[in-house]
Every structure is written in structure tokens, then in C-alpha cells.
Amino acid sequence: MLKAVLLLADVLPHICSLSLVFQKRDVHLGNIRTSVEKTVNLLTTRKTQNGPWLQKEEHLRSTCNITDPTPVDFDTKVRECFLNGLIENITVRFKDADTIDQLAILDLTGTDNIETMYGYTEIEALANTFDMDPETLLIQWQDFIALVSSAELTDRSLPSLLELFHSPCHKDKNLLSMYPLVAKLFSVAIIQPLSTAEVERIFSQVKLIKTSHRANLKTQTLTKILTVKLNCDETKFEKILDQCVTTFFKKKNRRLVNVV
């Protein structure tokens, strides 16, 4: 049915735009709810308003001489059912969008001057969500942002702030014991599986490593190579490579050694 194809052509760009939000390496938590709501609103509009492709239906029919064998009630039986199912799917999948949006206040990137009451509404909501004492959490949050402000950190992203709790450089401050509830929120925020960039990066590396000439590479070996490839910077990799080469030649005399 031509109308169904044109409906897909009108709807897919909205879905693709939402998908692209999650294909970035650093997905900001605060962009999730806005992107989801925007997509749902656009899909809801398509229930009653034709998109650019459906508006061309008559022109395409006459130009390409297309006829439908059995006319059906497209709006009720096709368009409405399809869009309702799609909207429900998105809504269910992002049912925690409000919580994710509240967790976004933990990312202090770009906040040079943090206000005293910064994030209080979100912190109270998060306390209820994660069954924490609101008053205790608010006190810890207020003290923590005061600490961040006084520390004059250049990087105030989620990973950097979480590192404050676990880094050996700040071990003497015992921040984990001072702000346990805040640390828990940071741990929750940092593990949100939002971005697909790293997953796609792994698949790309697998294709580069396991080529047709290395098709018999064992899974265990492939895993080890991927671990090194994805987690080591150039300096660390050079050290590991030197150690591997040294160990390789020490096991027994190699032809390359004899040649040298």
C-alpha cells in the first residue's frame, strides 16, 4: 500500500533523529527527556496531519499510475494503530526519562558559579526515587557542591566528579564516607546505558582485528586483543608490546634473534 510506505517515510526521520542522540560518545543526561518528548509530540502530530511524503500521495499515484487493489480505512486501521504502538513503545522504553533528567544536575560541566540552592528540587525527587532521606541527601549535596566550587576543578563532568570519591589523590579527604548518598547518585548516573557509541566502536574493532586472514582467531584471544585495544592509550600499549616481545624471545631462541 502506497500510503503505508509514505507514512513510514514521514515517520522514520523522527525515529532516526532520536536514535542519533544516543549515538554520540558523551550523551548528556539532560537531553534525554527533551528528545523523547519532542519525538512523541511529532509522532502524535502525524496522527492527524500528513507529513511531506503523504502530501505527495496523489501526485505519486498519477505519475506512477499506482492503484490500491482493496481500499481500506487507512487512518483508523493503519495510521492510528501504527503510531499508537510506536508511541507506546518509546514511552515504555523511556519510562525513567524523568529520573534521568533529574540525574543530569550531577553533571556540573559549564557551571562556573554554582548557586546555593542549585539542584534542590531534583535532589528531593531523587531522594524519593532511590529511597534516601531527603534532608540528609540535601545536606550532603550542599556540602559537596561547596567543595567542588572551592576546589576550582577544570573538569566537572560526571566521570571527573565521581573520581573525587575514589581517586587516591583525594583518599585523605575520605569523601566517600562524608557524602555516601551523593556518591551513590553519581554511581547510578554514570552507569546509565545511554550511548551506543562504545558498543559500535567494539564491533568496528572486531572487524578490523578478525579479518579473513585471521578467521581462526579464538574468542579468548580476540577478547584479550580487544581489551588492550580499547583500554590502553599509546604509551601503555608500547609498554605492553615491549613486555610481550621480551617474554616471547626469552622463552626460546627465535629465528629472528639468530638473524639479528
From TrEMBL:
Pfam families: Dimer_Tnp_hAT. Residues 1-17 form the signal peptide. Residues 168-229 form the HAT C-terminal dimerisation domain. The keyword Signal applies. Keywords: Signal. GO terms for molecular function: protein dimerization activity. InterPro entries: HATC_C_dom, RNaseH-like_sf. This is HAT C-terminal dimerisation domain-containing protein. It comes from Mytilus edulis. The lineage of its organism: Eukaryota, Metazoa, Spiralia, Lophotrochozoa, Mollusca.
